[in-house]
Design brief:
Length: 741
């Protein structure tokens, strides 16, 4: 018996010893032999990375008005576990359905979501209706779930909001095709947002730290910090008021003619700053998902090519003037002309012609025969195609927008060179190519690179990069450009036979050309489908703006002079007055001849807006072409600056205050005079600090003794009207037989 007990004790002791040896061996294996492996595993458990989101750069117009920026956004989330515990399922589904418009069956699936084991899930985002909503709707959601808490006397309803960021376009569809948009995930899809995405989005930073199993940071945590690099801020050449004039004028024509599409571009011909660019139909980048036709996103201004028609005659005219071949008083027989080797005659739009007329009359009437003689017979094939190339029609302009295409000029036979002279047959161009070419005539013969970015500022370093005017080549001499412009002016000013007479603007000298091109389907021209256009610039003596208007397939038979020229007139007349360009008046001397004199544009005074609703005031100011900004979130105008009856300087902005006090957001005052900035801030009843002299270039906000303090940094403007230097441009640097202007 004792022996058995001893054996059992020995056996148990041996097992314990063996187990201990195995345990020691295992510990040795883990802690010594596999030390590196398990150490890395532990670090992975302790280590955490927190992403520091970079701020996407803002996009402003040339006057500092914000066109795109990041703003707070809110995502609605539900917690199925809590909702089930509180028994609020039906109330939550019904309430969120009414607020967000999401179908009840989809909300039910989210509110009652379970895992594979049948347990309720904890957090579910409501997409897309509750994803990145604005503050107004978020406030309603918050009011809803706080109401549930109060009604049921509970602390948690299972409904909440997550604060995020989203891209916001405060002017909605204004300049949509230029700006493009980012989707709800923040991915840039088109336009400037896409083209400059790398510069705009910046680089996210990160914070690496160590914590215990409960997520509490360890005392001896080895932190590493990589700061975020915020995206660059862009200031564009676009002027929001001119862009507004463009889109308003387009909308009227679009509603009247119901075309397939419309395109308008406006530029300063001296620098090729794009002042405005629009297409219709268009879209709202804040609600891009509501646009069902993908064609609405196409920027025809740079991506579509078309047969230009008679607006292309400007190139032929300029070439013959440069070669000293154009004699305005020489005559020819209008109506039709035959090309050797081609059986059919080429005709004017008036097939019987106007008899024996001068070449200047031929330009005014947009005679195809006149331009065949000028381009095909006088210039000849080689020189004609060389001028077309020199004006940039077979290459991209280099505009800083994505997806630009180049035109095609591919004549082979004699008749194709003949029709090329008046813009038909084997020639297709883009709107931006045409505007750039005509701007070269307006600015004294220089072909320049168009651009929409005026300057880029890196917020991390404060460095600003300015886009300088860039000359591609001198196409024709300054004298030839001036002479060509004088003939194009008569196309508009001759109210009897000028095809561009509907673009005439009282008080301003306008040069331009109409175009009406019958479209091709397959191998045939379809007379019921036309593309009508007008292109020109003003004032002729000192060009400030060049504009092209294109209407593709209007629903009635109209030409460029009838449909497109009035759109040009409305845009240019409003823009020149807004820019403060003086008008000219004509006075008769004793001899009876008319002499042009410069007259200052009468200063406009501020209308009385106090007491009006913001909507009423906005409509009035837009209709009369004032530059303005609303401040506050109220429905009515509480006060305004400048006061009613104040004479406004050119380009001076009107501020409408809809609420007063510290809760009001401070408007962007950059570019304003100190006096204007002080008046606005005094109305807002905030503290003011001023550094420097001149015009506001920077503004910052802070709190001082519980009151908002705005600090203004001022700098003087240089001779170019900017706070940054601008270098001067480097001076060295087969068609339809019946189509017409």
């Amino acid at each position: 018996m004792v022996k058995r007990i001893k054996l059992r004790t020995l056996f148990i002791g041996g097992c314990i010893t063996l187990f201990f040896l195995v345990l020691v061996a295992r510990v040795f294996w883990i802690q010594v032999l596999q030390n590196d492996f398990w150490h890395e595993k532990a670090i992975a458990q302790w280590a955490h990375t927190s992403v520091i989101k970079a701020k996407r750069g803002t996009i402003e117009d040339r006057n500092g008005s914000v066109l795109a920026s990041d703003v707070p956004a809110y995502t609605v989330v539900v917690n199925p576990e809590v909702i089930a515990e509180q028994g609020l399922g039906e109330e939550v589904i019904q309430g969120l359905h009414e607020l967000l418009g999401k179908p009840e069956n989809e909300l039910k699936a989210l509110v009652e979501a379970k895992d594979k084991n049948g347990n309720y899930l904890k957090n579910r985002e409501i997409r897309n209706e509750g994803w990145k909503i604005d503050k107004e709707l978020a406030d309603k959601v918050k009011e809803f779930y706080e109401g549930l808490e109060e009604e049921h006397d509970i602390l948690e309803t299972g409904v909440g909001l997550i604060t995020e960021q989203k891209r916001y376009y405060p002017k909605d569809s204004l300049a949509a095709h230029i700006l493009g948009y980012t989707n709800r995930d923040g991915v840039a899809i088109m336009g400037l947002e896409k083209y400059f995405d790398e510069k705009l989005k910046g680089i996210n930073g990160e914070l690496n730290y160590q914590s215990d199993g409960k997520g509490i940071k360890l005392p001896d945590s080895q932190d590493t910090y990589k700061p975020a690099v915020n995206g660059s801020n862009f200031k564009l050449t676009i002027d929001s008021m001119i862009q507004r004039y463009i889109e308003d004028a387009m909308q009227k024509a679009y509603d009247q003619y119901k075309p397939k599409s419309m395109t308008v571009i406006a530029a300063d011909p001296n620098t090729m700053d794009i002042l405005g660019m629009a297409n219709m139909p268009t879209f709202n980048p804040n609600e891009f998902w509501k646009t069902t036709d993908q064609g609405d996103f196409l920027n025809h201004a740079i991506k579509s090519i078309y047969e230009p028609g008679s607006t292309f005659k400007i190139v032929t005219l300029a070439g013959t003037v440069q070669e000293k071949l154009f004699n305005p008083d020489a005559t020819f027989k209008s109506g039709s002309i035959r090309i050797k080797g081609y059986s059919k005659a080429l005709h004017d739009i008036n097939r019987s012609g106007w008899g024996e007329i001068s070449f200047l009359e031929g330009v005014k009437r947009s005679s195809n025969v006149a331009f065949v003689k000028l381009g095909y017979e006088m210039l000849g094939q080689e020189r004609l195609t060389q001028y077309i190339h020199d004006f940039g029609f077979e290459e991209k302009t280099g505009i800083d927008l994505p997806g630009e295409v180049s035109g095609r000029v591919t004549p082979q036979y004699s008749v194709e060179y003949a029709t090329l002279a008046y813009g038909h047959g084997k020639v297709q161009v883009t709107p931006i190519e045409q505007l750039t070419a005509v701007a070269a005539i307006a600015n004294g013969g220089k072909l320049m690179v168009p651009h929409v970015v005026k300057e880029v500022t890196d917020p991390n370093t404060g460095k600003t990069t300015v886009t300088q005017p860039e000359v591609v080549r001198q196409v024709i001499s300054e004298e030839s450009a001036r002479e060509t412009g004088s003939y194009l002016e008569q196309v508009v000013s001759d109210q009897s036979i000028g095809t561009g007479r509907h673009a005439y603007i009282e008080g301003y000298r306008v040069a331009g050309k109409t175009g009406t091109a019958i479209k091709v389907e397959g191998q045939d021209y379809v007379k019921s489908k036309v593309l009508v256009s007008f292109i020109g610039y003003a004032p002729v003596n000192d060009p400030k703006i060049a504009v092209i208007v294109i209407i593709d397939e209007p629903n009635v038979e109209v030409g460029g002079g009838t449909a497109a020229a009035p759109v040009f007139k409305e845009i240019v007349s409003q823009s020149l007055q807004y820019m403060g360009v003086p008008k000219t008046v004509e006075s008769a001397k004793e001899t009876g001849t008319k002499v042009s004199q410069t007259a200052a544009v009468p200063q406009r005074s501020t209308p009385d807006l106090a007491g009006k609703t913001i909507k009423e005031a906005r409509e009035l100011l837009l209709d009369q072409g004032y530059d303005f900004e609303t401040v506050g979130g109220g429905a009515n105008v509480v006060s305004q600056y400048p006061e009613k009856g104040t004479l406004l300087a050119s380009g001076q902005r009107i501020y409408l205050l809809s609420q007063q006090g510290d809760q009001t957001a401070i408007p962007d005052l950059r570019g304003q005079s100190l006096r204007d900035a002080l008046e606005v801030l005094n109305l807002l009843k905030v503290g003011i600090a001023v550094e420097g002299e001149g015009y506001v270039t920077e503004q910052t906000e802070s709190d001082q003794n519980g009151k908002k303090l705005v600090t203004l940094k001022l700098n003087p403007l240089n001779e170019h009207g900017e706070e940054i230097p601008v270098a001067a441009a480097d001076e060295d640097a087969a068609g339809s037989e019946d189509s017409g202007g």
